[in-house]
């Protein structure tokens, strides 16, 4: 808070706004420090009263879902006993977050395997050139053909793995979309 805000503070309103924005009640200590130089002290009774009035506007199922969906921590001021919908929304959001994490891991595996397949294609191209080089010895061309066949088999297996991972990723995306739609529907 600025010195001007400290001098004009309605502590009940400050507490209300802090709660509605999701701050912990301990934020009042930050206000006390910010206003110490102005000689203004926080009226904790008014702050607490405003805080308790603003808390229901933050401790909603929707806020909890969005917080958890983005990997945020459970707001401890939204106790399970007082705000059971917050706890429910947080649980639902954590499920979506877990699915998003799985999807990210699958995408990383897909990217890694795609890089491997690109490297294999480069090696296969070099082997094809060697295989088709009329100046290479017959043994060199046969060895290149054999290695090419082996790498092409590896490439096909890798390609199949990538397709399987992409299918899994797409299934998870559908599950995420369906849970989000069910939540907001």
Concise synopsis of the structure shown:
By secondary structure, this protein is an all-alpha fold.
Task: Describe the structure in your own words.
This protein has 185 residues and is mainly alpha-helical. It is 78% helix and 0% strand. The chain contains seven helices and no strands. Helix 5 (61-69) runs parallel beside helix 6 and helix 6 (84-132) runs antiparallel to helix 7. The longest helix is centred in the middle third of the chain and has 49 residues, at 84-132. The protein is elongated, with a radius of gyration of 30 Å. It starts with a helix and ends with a helix.
Mean pLDDT: 96
The fraction of residues in strands falls at: under 5%
Distance between the termini: 39 Å
Structural class: mainly alpha
Low-confidence runs of at least 5 consecutive residues: none
How many E strands? 0
Radius of gyration: 30 Å
**How helical, in percent, are the residues?**
over 70%
């Amino acid at each position: 808070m600025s010195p001007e805000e400290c001098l004009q503070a309605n502590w009940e309103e400050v507490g209300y706004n802090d709660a509605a924005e999701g701050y912990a009640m301990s934020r009042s200590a930050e206000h006390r420090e910010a206003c110490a130089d102005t000689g203004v002290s926080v009226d904790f009774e008014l702050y607490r009263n405003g805080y308790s009035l603003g808390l229901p506007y933050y401790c909603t199922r929707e806020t909890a879902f969005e917080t958890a969906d983005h990997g945020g921590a459970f707001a401890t001021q939204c106790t399970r006993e007082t705000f059971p919908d917050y706890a429910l929304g947080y649980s639902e959001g954590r499920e979506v977050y877990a699915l998003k994490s799985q999807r990210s891991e699958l995408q990383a595996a897909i990217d890694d395997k795609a890089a491997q397949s690109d490297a294999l294609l480069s090696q296969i191209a070099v082997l094809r050139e060697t295989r088709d080089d009329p100046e290479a010895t017959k043994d060199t061309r046969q060895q290149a053909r054999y290695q090419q066949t082996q790498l092409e088999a590896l490439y096909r297996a890798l390609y199949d793995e990538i397709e399987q991972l992409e299918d899994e990723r797409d299934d998870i995306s559908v599950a995420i979309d369906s849970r989000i739609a069910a939540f907001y529907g």
